[in-house]
Amino acid sequence: MKEKTNPAKEASWFVQRRISWLCARANYSSGKADLARLRRGIGKAPGSQPELWQVILEDLPESLLSSSGEPSCGEWAVHTALTLYALHQQGEDAEKHCVSKEGISLGSALRKLAPDRDNDEAIKRRFDAAATAGDFVELAHHLRGLIQLMKAKNIDLDYPALTRDLYWFQIMDKKDSVRLKWGQDFYRVEKEEKSDNNVQQDAQA
Description:
Peroxidase, domain 1
């Protein structure tokens, strides 16, 4: 029996390969042009800009392609992740430092922006606004602002993982699972730090 494809994973793998391709070409004029075009695609619908068709749609798995004339969940996830990556990478030499870093989820990246959450409620409010966005377009708008904050603080992000999250966020019965994961990752270190502090206090007692 043929194994059922997982479109969220396929979207993630595609973004991983595409970012590797973009990084390898980053110091060539054509590569710089691709990143500039991607940045112009932020906030736009997938397929609405012919200049992005090659970067976004070439070799995109068949399971992610729309058959209705409206962008699919996979196309939205891939387009949004790659355009945000291009914004995040701007000003950095991608051959020396690619801002897409495995293992840094959205929640953990934003935690680095707010190491002392008691004194940095602004980050938490912006994160909450993204997590509770009423639709995908609103989510993408909030993510753009958060990515700009990460960029300013030199904080990397796992874009293939973000792609998976963006895919499932569009599926009604999966959206809360994505939110739960974001919240867990945002607060996980605080719990670990408290445990370490308790161990130190017990040792000193």
